[in-house]
């Protein structure tokens, strides 16, 4: 771990100013990922800007939805009575991730900005284009059973580890950011990016920008939803595949469908074609299988993660079944519904 | 020769009781200090720089930038490393396998990934850690070989056998011929994964340089004598120049049996700098020394139509390092567990460019018993026998590998009590025949076995004028409850309240005792403490009898009991005297005694001694998604006398949890291209979490054993053995899919179609 300067601004404007154009500066809130990365010398910030004093800790109602301040902890969001009641998918996804201790510390903004859990990214003895552009990808042809099956590139096959972001993608949340050029909004689905030939860049956040809030739109999916997470032990592991499914039904017919996958790509994975396919169809296993097939049509296996394609196919079907039946996956009872 | 447990004592007042850990309050309040927590005014901090490659040499190492950091004291590399002993045997610790032990920073050669290449010593930890990141190393890389399956063809019979590890017995009968002619044949290859011990406490050593030039060493070790002798040998010191302590251990599981390289480096730096040094390894560095190396195992079973074994072949090829021939007992268990006339057991090694593997909880048995107990389950289905009945049909009444009877073996009773508690009788034998909602339900069982051992050990006991007793020896309490059981034994032998007894362990100034391993500590140290206390009892009795107007005059030792701090005539409490009164009346300041325990040669010549278990496991499986939940485990243990049901149960619980990990989760994943374990942290190396652990029912069946006066056989390892097979067998029962490669993860359930 390198040595660094430390500053603690009180306002968003001060924070943005402190970050300035300094590529060596990093914001720190909960620090649940950044500190690890610093211990591994993956991140070597010259300056830490502690943003925990910024006034971004409220959940407020707006436009029929909610605005979640960037510093609201994951635990606070998950257990907020309003969120639990109106956006149970989000609450469930957060509780599917990490541990109680981590959720108590981790912030909403930081959750979106956590880095991949690719083994090679964390290990400075190995090549990694995300950590050190141009060194190559160690995971391709290496140990990659947890890696991407969708949207990967020849430069990077890492996945984004967040559960919360998968639910936010399905809910079509909007990320509010502030920067040297003012404020702007980024739809969650466009917030993270695919690795392409620049895997060092996880998100479309511009240099100097800070996340100030995440907006939840009015649509809630209170009844027909699920967050189904499959992993290598029953708790406290990153997803091999996760599915956020949200439906609106007219009787047996699907009126609206939202589907986002975690653990399979460099970003929460949505496929508008598949969602369109589901619309107007009967909520049956056949329909769900057709959507799954469509989503996975372009899936590509790595040397040891081919099983994730079939697993994703089955998880999508099960997730949609759970959502349609109104029997969302419990995050405490580990039996799969 | 058998000695009664406590001939003169108020017999078994505490022994056999569920006494809470006597070291518990110190641990939960943080007063218990661990090796990396001891300090000294002149303490410097060492951080290890680890090799990025697995094989090759260091072409260039540049520590200039690190040395330039203010606060850095020294950067030690192979280029400036102070000399230590030139004799490889000086580095062979008490449990070392044959070979030339690894010496840190000895040369430019790299023989495993993560090998230490530099030690950065600084005034504070943060500076050392930062400076360590500035050491630049250039390597000449050679292609490493780390795939045991790929190297299995290069296997060899280790020319030197490891002390204490029985090689496979000579074959008996004609296993190959009998297999070919058998009515029923089962044949399979069984694989596990490389596993790493991962105790919660990091490996750490604090070396304190005393004013007189001697060294006080706090080391994460399972027995201080091993560290002491290693340091004296490697650094050419007189035994009295080194004192080693390790009062507490935050888990070892075998990783603390051998002195690890952080000790060598801390000592190297301390001696070189003439100041105290602490080196603590990171979690990731736990993947750079010792591991449970996978063995490629093949088993062939032949049986008649009733399921009676007619042929048993068990072969294992296990990985070791390039510089030591690590060996453990993998295949012999098959020959011990089952009665069969035609048996061939073979074990060989193959060289890998990894650190030397090491003993990890029930070393060898976890590996070998997983394979034989899975194969036996396959035979049960092939012969249409209930798995328990099949095992009873082939039950061994003696150890065929050495033609000796068992000292005791209550495995039948373990099967009976275990199956009853589990409800095994209501199991439907057909695979895929039990279901609950969406989930398939599987019930599987297996046998566990571990050798019951005893080691030469001493213990010292000192009774003060205040009636307080101190006992102890060098062995370590590795979290098993040794402090507690020794306190119980001492208190009972002298009839004292528990709080009048203090047990001291893990200090080379105490009486000699070996490392804590092999499940031998309760038998060895327990017997030594009992004998020391019995000696004290005789001494204090003689004093009491010699007192003026002694109520014990003309009473024989055999006729008194020690109870409530008094010596009393058995059956006549009115005739007695308090120990404190004896001490005062006779002007005795203190009484001291040493107890010696050693294996009973007569017993060992006549008998072989093992502990056994019967494990029953339930799994529930969502087959479509490949999700396995272990929902119930019953472990029935036959392991002699239980000194403390509470700490004993905890031992078995821990073993079962670790067995569940072995079955379903634990896997160190090697990138063979670079010879490196890649998931080297607890986020990605999965051990079970609470959600993975069901209710575990532990049963101790009565077993009388006479190998030692306490009647104990050891509990540290038996809890884990066979658990993985029971779970894998339950997975088969649930799904009809036989997965012969641990851990059983989602991909394997999906892929087994």
UniProtKB/TrEMBL annotation, chain A:
Keywords in alphabetical order: FAD, Flavoprotein
Protein name per its UniProtKB record: Xanthine dehydrogenase YagS FAD-binding subunit
Key word RNA-binding present: no
Cell inner membrane is among the record's keywords: no
Pfam families, alphabetized: CO_deh_flav_C, FAD_binding_5
Record PANTHER family: OXIDOREDUCTASE, XANTHINE DEHYDROGENASE SUBUNIT C-RELATED
Occurrences of domain FAD-binding PCMH-type (ranges): 1-221
Entries under Gene3D superfamilies matching the protein: 3.30.465.10, CO dehydrogenase flavoprotein, C-terminal domain (3.30.390.50), Uridine Diphospho-n-acetylenolpyruvylglucosamine Reductase, domain 2 (3.30.43.10)
Coiled coil residues, start to end: none
PROSITE patterns recorded: FAD_PCMH
Superkingdom of origin organism: Bacteria
Gene Ontology molecular functions: FAD binding; oxidoreductase activity
From TrEMBL, chain B:
Coiled-coil regions listed in the entry: none
Domain Aldehyde oxidase/xanthine dehydrogenase a/b hammerhead: from-to ranges: 29-143
Protein name: Xanthine dehydrogenase YagR molybdenum-binding subunit
InterPro entries noted in UniProt: Ald_Oxase/Xan_DH_a/b, Ald_Oxase/Xan_DH_a/b_sf, Ald_Oxase/xanthine_DH-like, AldOxase/xan_DH_MoCoBD1, AldOxase/xan_DH_MoCoBD2, AldOxase/xan_DH_Mopterin-bd_sf
GO terms of molecular function: iron ion binding; oxidoreductase activity
Database matches in SMART domains: Ald_Xan_dh_C
Family annotation (Pfam families): Ald_Xan_dh_C (PF01315), MoCoBD_1 (PF02738), MoCoBD_2 (PF20256)
């Amino acid at each position: 771990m390198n040595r660094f300067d430390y500053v603690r601004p009180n306002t968003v404007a001060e924070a943005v100013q402190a970050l300035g154009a300094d590529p060596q500066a990093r914001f720190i809130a909960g620090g649940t990922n950044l500190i690890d990365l610093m211990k591994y010398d993956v991140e070597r910030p010259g300056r830490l800007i502690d943003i925990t004093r910024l006034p971004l800790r409220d959940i407020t109602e707006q436009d029929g939805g909610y605005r979640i301040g960037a510093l609201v902890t994951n635990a606070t969001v998950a257990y907020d009575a309003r969120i639990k009641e109106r956006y149970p998918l989000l609450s469930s996804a957060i509780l599917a991730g990490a541990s109680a201790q981590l959720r108590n510390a981790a912030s909403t903004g930081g959750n979106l900005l956590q880095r991949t859990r690719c083994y090679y990214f964390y290990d400075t003895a190995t090549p990694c284009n995300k950590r050190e552009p141009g060194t190559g990808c160690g995971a391709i042809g290496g140990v990659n059973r947890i890696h991407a099956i969708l949207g990967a590139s020849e430069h990077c096959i890492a996945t984004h580890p967040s559960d919360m972001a998968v639910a936010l993608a399905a809910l079509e949340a909007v990320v509010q950011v502030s920067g040297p050029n003012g404020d702007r909004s980024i739809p969650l689905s466009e917030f993270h990016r695919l690795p392409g030939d620049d895997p060092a860049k996880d998100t479309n956040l511009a240099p100097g920008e800070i996340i100030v809030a995440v907006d939840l739109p009015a649509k809630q999916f209170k009844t027909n939803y699920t967050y189904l997470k499959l992993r290598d032990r029953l708790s406290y592991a990153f997803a091999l595949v996760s599915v956020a499914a949200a439906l609106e039904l007219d009787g047996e017919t699907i009126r609206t469908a939202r589907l986002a996958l975690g653990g399979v790509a460099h970003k929460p994975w949505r496929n508008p074609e598949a969602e369109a396919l589901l619309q107007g169809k009967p909520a049956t296993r056949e329909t769900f299988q057709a959507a799954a097939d469509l989503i996975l049509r372009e899936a590509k296996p790595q040397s040891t993660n081919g099983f994730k394609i079939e697993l994703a196919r089955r998880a999508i079907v099960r997730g949609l079944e759970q959502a349609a039946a109104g029997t969302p996956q419990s995050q405490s009872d580990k039996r799969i519904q | 020769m058998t000695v009664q447990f406590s001939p003169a004592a108020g017999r078994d007042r505490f022994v056999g009781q569920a006494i809470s850990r006597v070291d518990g309050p110190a641990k939960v309040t943080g007063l218990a200090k661990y090796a990396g927590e001891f300090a000294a005014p002149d303490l410097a901090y060492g951080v290890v720089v680890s090799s990025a490659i697995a094989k090759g040499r260091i072409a260039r190492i540049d520590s200039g930038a690190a040395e330039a950091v203010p606060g850095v004291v020294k950067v030690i590399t192979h280029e400036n490393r102070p000399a230590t002993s030139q004799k490889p045997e000086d580095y062979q610790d008490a449990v070392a396998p044959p070979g030339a032990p690894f010496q840190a920073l000895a040369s430019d050669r790299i023989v495993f990934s993560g090998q230490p290449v530099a030690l950065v010593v600084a005034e504070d930890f943060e500076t050392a850690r930062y400076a360590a990141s500035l050491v630049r190393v250039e390597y000449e890389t050679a292609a490493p070989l780390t795939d045991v399956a790929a190297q299995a063809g290069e296997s060899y019979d280790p020319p030197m056998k490891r002390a204490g590890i029985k090689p496979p017995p000579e074959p008996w009968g004609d296993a190959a011929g009998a297999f070919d002619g058998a009515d029923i044949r089962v044949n399979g290859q069984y694989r596990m994964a490389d596993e790493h011990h991962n105790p919660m406490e990091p490996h750490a050593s604090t070396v304190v340089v005393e004013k007189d030039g001697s060294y006080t060493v706090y080391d994460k070790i399972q027995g201080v004598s091993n560290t002491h002798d290693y340091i004296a040998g490697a650094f050419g010191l007189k035994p009295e120049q080194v004192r080693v302590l390790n009062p507490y251990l935050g888990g070892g599981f075998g990783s603390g049996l051998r002195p690890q390289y952080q000790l060598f480096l801390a000592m190297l730096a301390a001696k070189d700098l003439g100041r105290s040094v602490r080196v603590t390894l990171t979690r990731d560095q736990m993947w750079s020394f010792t591991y449970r190396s996978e063995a490629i195992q093949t088993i062939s079973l032949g049986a008649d139509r009733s399921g009676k074994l007619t042929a048993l072949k068990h072969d294992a090829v296990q990985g070791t390092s390039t510089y030591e021939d690590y060996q453990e007992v993998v295949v012999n268990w098959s020959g011990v567990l089952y009665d069969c006339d035609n048996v061939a057991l073979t074990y060989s090694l193959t060289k890998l460019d990894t650190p030397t593997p090491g003993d990890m909880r029930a070393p060898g048995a976890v590996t070998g018993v997983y394979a034989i107990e899975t194969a036996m389950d396959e035979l049960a289905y092939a012969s249409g026998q209930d798995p328990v009945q099949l095992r009873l049909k082939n039950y061994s009444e003696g150890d065929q590998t050495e033609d000796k009877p068992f000292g005791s073996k209550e495995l039948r009773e373990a099967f009976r009590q275990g199956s009853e508690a589990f409800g095994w009788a209501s199991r439907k034998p057909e695979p895929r025949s039990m279901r609950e909602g969406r989930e398939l339900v599987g019930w599987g069982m297996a046998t566990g076995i571990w050798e019951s051992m005893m080691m030469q050990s001493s213990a010292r006991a000192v009774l003060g004028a205040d009636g307080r007793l101190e006992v102890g020896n060098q062995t370590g309490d590795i979290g098993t409850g040794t402090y507690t059981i020794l306190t119980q034994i001492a208190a009972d032998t002298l009839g004292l309240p528990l709080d009048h007894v203090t047990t001291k362990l893990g200090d080379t100034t105490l009486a000699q005792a070996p490392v804590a391993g092999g499940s031998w500590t309760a038998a060895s140290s327990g017997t030594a403490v009992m004998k020391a206390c019995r000696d004290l009892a005789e001494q204090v009795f003689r004093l009491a009898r010699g007192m003026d107007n002694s109520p014990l005059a003309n009473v024989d030792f055999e006729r008194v009991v020690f109870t409530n701090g008094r010596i009393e005539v058995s059956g006549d409490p009115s005739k007695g005297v308090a120990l404190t009164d004896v001490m005062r009346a006779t002007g005795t300041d203190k009484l001291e005694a040493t107890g010696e325990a050693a294996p009973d040669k007569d017993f060992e010549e006549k008998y072989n001694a093992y502990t056994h278990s019967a494990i029953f496991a339930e799994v529930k499986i969502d087959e479509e998604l490949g999700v396995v939940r272990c929902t119930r485990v019953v472990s029935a243990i036959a392991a002699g006398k239980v000194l403390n049901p509470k700490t004993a149960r905890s031992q078995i619980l821990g073993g079962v949890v670790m067995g569940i990990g072995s079955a379903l989760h634990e896997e160190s994943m090697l990138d063979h291209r670079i010879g490196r374990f890649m998931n080297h942290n607890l986020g990605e190396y999965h051990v079970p979490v609470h959600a993975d652990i069901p209710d575990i029912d532990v049963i101790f069946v009565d077993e009388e054993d006479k190998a030692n006066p306490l009647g104990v056989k050891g509990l540290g390892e038996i809890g884990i053995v066979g658990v993985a097979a029971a779970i894998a067998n339950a997975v088969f029962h649930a799904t009809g899919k036989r997965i012969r490669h641990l851990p059983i993860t989602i991909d394997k359930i999906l892929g087994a179609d």
